Amino acid sequence: MVNPAEEVPTASVRDLPGDPVLLDVREDDEWAAGHAPVAKHIPLGELPARLDELAELPDDQPLYVVCRTGGRSARATMWLNANGWDAVNVAGGMKSWQTEGRELVGDRPGAEPEVL
């Protein structure tokens, strides 16, 4: 749980680099509906058991963490930073990603990508 007294490093979608190292911590159905094409998907509840997968990601910039609106990703960011990662929460999550006109891809045949 995020302690409100602690600061969570945060960046807006607008301030992200063009090709961010992005971790999406939403659930499988949310991911399938629509996600950033550059994102790595690990649901929040699976993150501790799948940390080794983050080692495959580039480490020359922060790990930007995203969920639907920013709550789960804030918790993940705090946890990752406490465990030695340089993580930054994406303010507004995938809802802001979509609002900013960033590319979305989906895994549902015949359906337009959307943020659930």
From TrEMBL:
Residues 16-106 form the Rhodanese domain. SUPFAM superfamilies: Rhodanese/Cell cycle control phosphatase (SSF52821). InterPro entries: GlpE_sulfurtransferase (IPR050229), Rhodanese-like_dom (IPR001763), Rhodanese-like_dom_sf (IPR036873). Pfam families: Rhodanese. CDD domains: RHOD. Residues 1-20 are annotated as: Disordered. PANTHER family: FAD-DEPENDENT OXIDOREDUCTASE, PYRIDINE NUCLEOTIDE-DISULPHIDE OXIDOREDUCTASE. This is Rhodanese-like domain-containing protein.
